[in-house]
Amino acid sequence: AARSAGPQSVRAADAGLNQLAYGRLRLEEDLRRALDQNELEVHFQPQIALKPGVVSGAEALVRWRHPIRGLVPPTEFVTLAEECGLVEQLGRFVLAEASRVCAGWTARGMPLRVAVNVSTLQFRNPRFGESALEIIRAAGADPSRIELEITESAAMGDPEHAARELAPLKAAGVRIAIDDFGTGYSNLATLTQLPFDVLKIDRAFVLDALNAPAARVVVGTVIGMADNLGVETVAEGVETEEQLDFVVSHGCTYAQGYLFGRPMSADAFEAWYANRLVAELRALADRAAPG
Ligand code: C2E
Ligand code: MG
Ligand code: MG
Ligand code: MG
């Protein structure tokens, strides 16, 4: 049995590889079609300003409404888009759509910011800053309501490029966030020279904050450093009251996570926001007239 297992498992591995290659090629064609036929959607996850405890905005997160596979998360296609030269188109779509929704919210009296993810490859474009600003303006959004999330590694890969591309955005009022902070290996001296407004503390640290002393130290240190630099912080992936208490007690500025809300379609977000406003007002009234 052991003898025949050899060639057989080689054949099995071969078939597996072929299937993988075929699957990938199909997926690539699928993604091209998805971009052309508007199968991509942008969902919005609430962000809460912790001091007053009010909704400050939302992070825009892309999803693929695949005709067969259903709603596909970005972890399954953003890298693919990068690899087959589609990430530029994807990034433009998400920024345009997020800006359009943001402009609508502003027009309807919802004073919210929208944060948009930028892929490393997209950020490398020598005209990144200029073209992002064009997209935001063309969609009618107020640039000061848009926040661009650059990962730590993208920002640090070429700090001079980063400074050059971020300058016009900053000048127009766009906010810059460093995403997944703590997962890269930043040269802090270089990082602090970049014009960013907010550090997003990676979910992994928030998750471990209550049981792993090391993660607790990271969260506390990042918030302390941000305070000293005069920038704000977002705790990602807050799922429990305990995690919320922890980041609040450390003076974190904003939180985002399933405890408040999952990423939702723009319509669902608006309904969620209306309910939340009612609850906030009720809490205010209770505080004003207790009992
Ligand atoms: P990210 O930018 O760090 O986004 C946060 C991710 O954490 C989102 O996953 C969000 O749904 C998830 N999350 C939020 N709160 C919680 C929580 O309480 N618990 C848990 N377990 N997860 C939570 P999502 O939407 O699957 O996105 C994954 C990543 O894909 C994002 O990480 C971002 O790097 C990337 N991505 C998403 N949308 C875009 C996009 O439009 N463009 C690019 N380039 N990348 C995107
Ligand atoms: Mg993000
Ligand atoms: Mg993040
Ligand atoms: Mg993250």
UniProtKB/TrEMBL annotation:
Coiled coil: none annotated. It comes from the Bacteria. Residues 24-277 form the EAL domain. This is Putative signal transduction protein with EAL and GGDEF domain.
